[in-house]
Amino acid sequence: MSEKELGHDAEKGHGKSSVEVGTVGVLVEDGVVYDNEHEVFRKDDDAIDYRTVGMKRALFVMFKVVFSLGILSLPSTLFSLGALGGALSVIGWGLLNTYCAILIGNFRHNHTTCHSIVDMGMILGGKVLKETCGVLFLLGWILAVGASILGVSTGLNALSSHATCTVWWSFITYIVVALGASLPKFHSLGWITWIGSASIFTAVFIIVIAVTTRDRPAAAPQSGPYELGYFVIGSPSFISGMVASLNIFNSSAGANSFIPLMAEMKRPKDFNKAVIIVMSFSGACYIAFSLVIYRWCGQWVTSPSLASAGPVIEKVCYGIALPGLLAIALLCLHVASKYLFVRILRKSPHLQAKSAIHWITWFSCTFGLGTLSFIMAEAIPVFNYLLALNASVCFAPLAIMIPGACWLYDHKSYRKGSMGQKVFYWSHYSLLLFGAFFLVGGTYATIQSIITSNQTNGIGKPFDCANDA
């Protein structure tokens, strides 16, 4: 019996029915077919039901992951690449990240035991690749949470006029984020992502309008001649161009976090549709908002971009955006914690049981990884560099190389197929080479940028309040 037939039969009746299809246990509930044998989370009356995320909620969660941090860093990257170069880069990276997200989504359709991209690493390369992916996945999302904590603490500084040390704002943010991320299911975060998406979108929209009403950028000299620094085509050095490209890549590279969300979707087959909708809308917003801010601010654009229209508008925008900044932080922490939690309890009856071990493990993951994120935020207190380092070290392998390897694994027959299939097969090796280039070159460029910035301007010492004036 096919899945379509099962769904049709379920619609005739009411409630739940358990059906066997070959060796696969299938549960049909309200017309939705659940693979209860191979999926990570089972549908069981006596267990916590994690598979409750519908299409609309998945769209908001994905949009929140992709949109928030990217729009805060993108306008400043256009100064290196220029308006045209930056716009083309946003489009190019968006298309590549969308394609790679679909590749891992299709791989997960074919291998439903995968809860995260780390499980895909096990299938592709055994324990060595699995553990490598695990380290990169955790580090990547710890850095993302750290960048989010840094963004929130910057906002709190602006709202309070630097009433206290930034380290304390970061610590308070960490506690709030860890508590929020401890909600057990993606479904539980739905209302938070709705509010967060609306707040960050509104705040950025206000900045876009505000910068066009000023005679000159807020950060530029307010009297006398000045250089705007607006270029249609930029002429960056290798290092500055690479860091800018990494920030643009990072803005839509969060698709590797969508696989744990996919494991909690009611209908995983809606995954690709959700990815295309989210990436298309967020990409359009990136181009429109970033180009306007860069056109009016030029080299004087700030990072994060919410301070680009002066102190008054900065306070207004951070006040509106604060829920969104907190939402992305707790969402990223939830993604990392959920991976570690499943990794620890996957073969245990406590994975979905309402037991003390279940909850102790879960809270240990959220607060433990949250602590590491807080430390990273204070160790590298520069927003753009933190995102660039995350993109090169973690997301280049996870968001480019692994998706390419997933396609090659599932299409081995193309290697000996028709000429078109052979070309298509070997072309996917370019994803492995491209990812390796950004892993090595991007990491080098980011480290050099951090060293140069520290020597010329000083980026602040870890856990230091000296620059909080």
From TrEMBL:
Q: What is this protein called?
A: Neutral amino acid permease
What family name appears in the similarity comment?
Belongs to the amino acid/polyamine transporter 2 family.
Any one GO CC term of this protein is: membrane
Q: Does the keyword Ribosomal protein apply?
A: no
Top-level taxon in the UniProt lineage? Eukaryota
The UniProt entry, under InterPro entries, shows: AA_transpt_TM
What positions does the domain Amino acid transporter transmembrane occupy? 52-448
Q: Which PANTHER family match?
A: AMINO ACID TRANSPORTER (PTHR22950), AMINO ACID TRANSPORTER (EUROFUNG) (PTHR22950:SF697)
Q: Where is it located?
A: Membrane
Entry's transmembrane regions = 58-81, 87-107, 128-152, 158-179, 191-211, 231-253, 274-296, 316-336, 356-377, 383-409, 429-447
Q: How does it sit in the membrane?
A: Multi-pass membrane protein
Q: Write one Gene Ontology MF term.
A: L-amino acid transmembrane transporter activity
- Keyword set for this entry? Membrane, Transmembrane, Transmembrane helix
